Amino acid sequence: MDKKQQTALTQFVSQLSKKQLQDFAVSAAQITPSLYYELTAQSGKLDFETEFNDIKQTIKTTIKKHVNDEGLWSNSTVIVVNELLLADLQRFTRRGQQGYYAYAFHGILFVLLNAGKIQSTILPFDDTFKTTINTALKKLTALVQQIKDQVNASTKQNMIQETLKIFNRKIWDGKEKTRYKIISSIIPLIPESMLTIVTQTMTNSIARISDGGYDGYIGNDLPDAQAMEIIIKARLKYHFGKADQARALLDKNLDDPNVRLERVKFALNDKDYELAAKLCQEGDWRNMSWKDIWQKQLIQIYSTTHQDQDLEKILRRRLLTNNTDAYQPLKQLYIRQNKWQRIRSDLLKDCQQQLTTENNAFVLNIEHEYAKLLAVIADTSYLIYQYTPVLYQQFPEEISHSYYDYLISNDHYANKAAYKRVGDKLIYFAKVANPHQALTWISWLQKKYPYRSAMQEQLMSTRDNIQEIIEEAKQTPS
Prior knowledge:
about 475 residues, mainly alpha, globular
């Protein structure tokens, strides 16, 4: 609901009598059962056991409805089930805001567990539910921060025990960083009286990996688990006011990059920027993933401490090794130093010489160097597609020729999938550039391939869609 609709609804509701509001609420809740739970939750009378059972049943029914007889998940099934879990996650987050702390905590863990089950057993190579798992962990962390001083010792103990059960589930086998993030999320709830059981649970998990790993394969699981155990123990020491011991524990294990990164975060929290920079500089720069992390940390440190010379060096190095996220920070640094106009031309030349075609095009687009951008993308089909909305108005003939030659004419495979691709590209061009030109191309193709019945059918459907685009444009005020 947008702001205009909210205002209209507020005005409408304000004009209703108490009886009309009551009738409206009852009627709406009958149509939308979830509204019943929202209304009762808002009044402090939520039957959360019934709501939770309804949530579980809805997930079960949805999966049964969308998964085929062989148990295979289509893309649409993934989307539907994931959206349902995300909606439930939002609902449990609201319950926490409404004061149902234990229920909200249990509910978020429920979403985390179900997303983990699907990710582990059904869709191990699909990142959709991995994102949902990370979102649930963030929501759990936020809820714990909210309620850490609001719930009693008994409730905390129940929450910790429930979390440890989920920590031990086999669905996290091979995903040790995720497993340990679960415990990290609840650290503010952990009292010293439960410290032993928490640390013993982590130790047992590592012992299980050491005894043969998961399915007899250890891989990175053991070092990941060992590093995460050290990190969690350090965070627990810090939580209990033993900051020096926490730092010392990390300092003993800096050979592991995960532990080193945690030590950097400790140093940043202490505002010890010199130590933080030193730790980054002495990290493993041979591994490209960690090199990227150390660069980003140093950029943050140099920006915070106004070490402009070091900042310029690392941003230039990062940009000219094809990391375009460094371009705008570097430009803003030069602007702040009143160097931009003097340096701009040389920097663009360096980008042209050292960046990939795609990244050079990215920079030229930011700088509105459209003639140069046109020359760069001239024979690169996916870049022509990407930059047609930007370049068509200034270079209609050139873009039209390139678009047709590289994206329409070249897609010459005689099958329905190719015809559908051509149709989609014609519609895209009609939307972002010139629908009449797209219709002309359709006429060309119809004449060129009169005996391809499937193609002719696709082109007729595409023509109808483009005609609708033209009609909609006529009705839209300019």
